[in-house]
# Entry
Amino acid sequence: MQTFIEDLITKNNYQATHLLAVLRAVQTQYHHIPKAAIEQIATLLLIPRTQIIGVIEFYSFFHLTPRGQYELLISDSITDHMLGKHEMTAYIEQKLNVKLGEVRTDGLVSFDNTSCTGLCDQGPAALINGYALPHLTPAKIDQMADLINQQLPVSAWPKVLFDVKDNVIKSSLLLAHPIQPGEALHTAFKRGLKETLKEIDMSGLRGRGGAGFKTATKWQYCSEEKTDEHIVVCNADEGEPGTFKDRVLLNAYAHHVFEGMTLCAAIIGAKKGFLYLRGEYLHLYDQLNAILADRLKLGLLGQHILGANVDFDIEICLGAGAYICGEESALIESLEGKMGIPRNRPPYPVTQGYLGKPTVVNNVETFMAAAKIAVNGGEWFAAMGTEKSKGTKILSICGDCDNPGIYEVAFGASIQSILDDCGAKDVLGIQIGGPSGTFISNTELARKIAFEDLATGGSFIIFNNTRNILDIVNNFTHFFAHESCGFCTPCRVGTSLLKNQLDKIVNGHGSAGDVVALEELCQLVKTQSHCGLGQTAANPILTTLERYPELYQAQLKKISYEPGFDLDAALETARRLVNRDDVAAHLTQVEEG
Amino acid sequence: MAKTIMIDGLSIPFEEGQTIMQAATDAGVYIPHLCHHPEFSPHGSCKLCTVKVNGRNCSACTFPAMEGQEVINNAKDLNADRQKITQMLFVEGNHFCPSCEKTGNCQLQAVAYHLNMLDDHFPLFYQHREMDASHADLLIDHNRCIFCTLCVRASHEHDGKEVFAISGRGINKHLIVNSESGLLKDTDISAKDKAAHICPTGAILIKHTAYQVPIGERIYDHQQIDQVSLNSEQVDHDK
# Structure
């Protein structure tokens, strides 16, 4: 192991910023991060061992204790549930002889839940040693069980198991008529970089991650910072449950994205760029690096890009299972090899980002749009959309519809028109913008996709009338408690309190005051939390409580108070100790009558 | 003329580069806080110091004072939220004030009294947390840790060491120490370190000193935390 780690650290140039990459390699090799490895890495990277332990315990894909040689993680998103996650889980447990959350006694297999894997249009999905397995079926599980029993390495498994589909169904400005590699840069250099920034300004392009900050303004601010060390970061940490469009863009339109990043670099004067790719998209890593190598050969990266006085390189950094790293300052922390904890603002990343340098962070789709605007001009883009939301939005549509997949719609499109496009019938409601967004009911289908009405980073999950709203809300609320970084009190404690309080109500232990208490807690977490995660974590409850108060009320018991704990269950240990299980050894929760 | 901000209708002068907390403290205005300490870089995690700045919630300990700010601090709704956040800290850990040797000297307890906290409000988590009594002079009782990171910052910024860190995620956050064994006795901490004395609760204690000051004569037995805090932190700032 000593040589393995020495080589690894050498390969990473002794850079502490590469800690995640180092730990990913160790985890892959040894199926956990051994203590001796921590000591050696700390010595070689000159960082305290506590930083390494902190990072290991922060990211879901790192472990201090051994996982299986085959580490199987099943996606626990609501859409996976709707596509049969529970049945597949039971079948895996039986077939592979391992319980969810455990490592098999022979150490060969471990099995656990993971947050949304971004395969919502082809679930139930899983990851095997980090690689995406779409569309699980009993037949595929049988096949996997055989492969595991033969101890065949995952790299030698049949490719068909890993066949992730793009499912691009509706194309418009961005997805139709792809541009050629270099076309945007050529046009921009010819037109002039300042003029190109003006075109982007004129296009009205706003950040596609969901927050909607005007892209040209962000680039302008960053370029005004006096240093020659600006940084460009592409946020491909697409973790919002129900969204998968960045996976498709990076699979089928990667040149566009890299072109947009390079354009940004030329405009703001950056020499270094990062693509922060969520760990769940490991299957894209090699092909993206191959595209970067191609672009270098084509003179679209490296020194003197297209003969201009522009030098720029892009490095791909993989995440390790943390939704919070989609928050731009947490992402920057992660790029620096640390826990993904959102920073205090100000300063904003445009003035002090990666290693304190002025940094532009934009979404995958934003960079792609910028590249196409550079070619086609601002007017071309602004001709579509609404006054405040120009252009189009790429939606990841999943859930109850005939044709889940990628739909590019003009901003201002009504929800009804989108439902018609994808063949959704008998609709109960739609989760727009993922769990952190809004749940709308079937009486609001005239509403529009737009920053001024329903903003979304791309997630669009449809539920039909067979679905139970409280199950959906419960899944989302558990998700936030699991993903809270734990930095600030209101979110760290609040998301777990929300989870427990909602569980109490959903499980039928709620009484009169419990919905009021739940709503109060929601408001506290929403208004007092440090970052967007906490500020939106209560949205699933708040948006459904507003629309379906009777659903929550119906769960409540007709008594004024019910304790949060189960009295009878609490006596279980005592019963075992005295070896009794008769009637008198049990207590009812509340006196009858 | 000095630049000013308005806090609860009072005109407060500030120097360029000061946070709202620093400006307020210098002017004798108390903003409740636990993770803030004037000697260390601000952290902004406990969220007790949340104030409304021109209508927006901001952490006073990290947000820079800027000309023209209208700050609301001592308001009913903010104090109600502060009380609930304090209750969150109480239910998250295991805090039994009557049996804790820090009682009367504990900032968590004092801030709770100041905010008129009369109960836990939220259900307790009853988390299982360990003690580390391995060190000859010091003790860590993880039951009382509130993740303010003051010990982390004091060790790093003042003592020039890296004894403490916060590890884990979400509700599983926990304090760790920098030794191969994971025990405090194997770190390079000394009872003379600032980090050993900075804990606002009873999570890090100096052994053999527990009841040298009897209950009834302790810091917060006769004074509220707002007065104690202003007295000490204004002095600190003038150094």
Q: What stands out?
A: Residues 3-81+229-238 of chain B form a domain with the Ubiquitin-like (UB roll) fold (CATH 3.10.20.740). Chain B has two domains: 3-81+229-238, 96-223.
